[in-house]
Design brief:
The protein is α+β, with helices and mostly antiparallel strands. Helices cover 32% and strands 25% of the residues. It is built from 5 helices and 7 strands. The protein has a 5-stranded mixed β-sheet with strand order 2-4-5-7-6. It has a two-stranded antiparallel sheet with strand order 1-3. A hairpin with a 5-residue loop joins strand 6 and strand 7.
Length: 185
């Protein structure tokens, strides 16, 4: 909750630095393996970057928090034995798309925007079986927005959810809307 308040009041400034995108994804995914292993889930990365690596200009700790939020949600809402894949690609050296894809329970169409609001979850009933207060995606959207990026949710073919993030390689530069829609990776 404090993270969300800090982001909303700009007390939690963004500190941009050059970071190795592949390392950020691989290291963050590795920290989530124990949770996925506890549910016998396959957690993998598919990274397609020019020359195998890419340096991005982001706030590393905030983007690590975003990835942890998204992977933790995928683990939580994917059944035992399911799969979660983190993909990453770039286009023409301007934009990066990161997806967290799962074969979990999915999200109803009418909830795909609402889950990004603070304290909202796809099932807000008192009988829901999944724990949490509904802040992870609100914090995620705030951080991605601070990086001049966008985040949205789509259905995964065959069931589940895909969370897309499109960010400029240099987060201090605004993203180009047309590029975000045409990444296709």
């Amino acid at each position: 909750l404090l993270d969300l308040v800090r982001i909303d009041t700009n007390k939690n400034k963004v500190t941009y630095s050059d970071i190795d995108l592949r390392r950020l994804i691989v290291d963050t995914t590795a920290t989530m393996h124990p949770q996925a292993n506890a549910k016998q889930q396959a957690l993998t990365e598919l990274i397609s970057l020019p020359n195998g690596d890419l340096v991005v200009h982001w706030d590393e700790s905030k983007m690590r928090q975003v990835l942890i939020n998204l992977i933790a949600n995928a683990v939580k809402f994917t059944p035992h034995g399911g799969s979660i894949t983190v993909t990453c690609c770039s286009t023409e050296g301007k934009q990066v798309e990161i997806k967290v894809i799962d074969n979990g329970i999915g999200i109803e169409d009418n909830m795909k925007e609402q889950v990004f609001l603070a304290f909202e979850q796809a099932d807000n009933s008192y009988t829901r079986i999944y724990e949490g207060v509904g802040l992870g995606l609100a914090i995620t959207r705030s951080i991605v927005s601070l990086h001049n990026g966008t985040v949205w949710i789509e259905d995964t073919a065959g069931g589940g959810t895909t969370v897309h993030m499109v960010l400029p390689i240099n987060a201090e530069t605004p993203k180009e809307k047309d590029d975000a829609e045409n990444l296709g990776c």
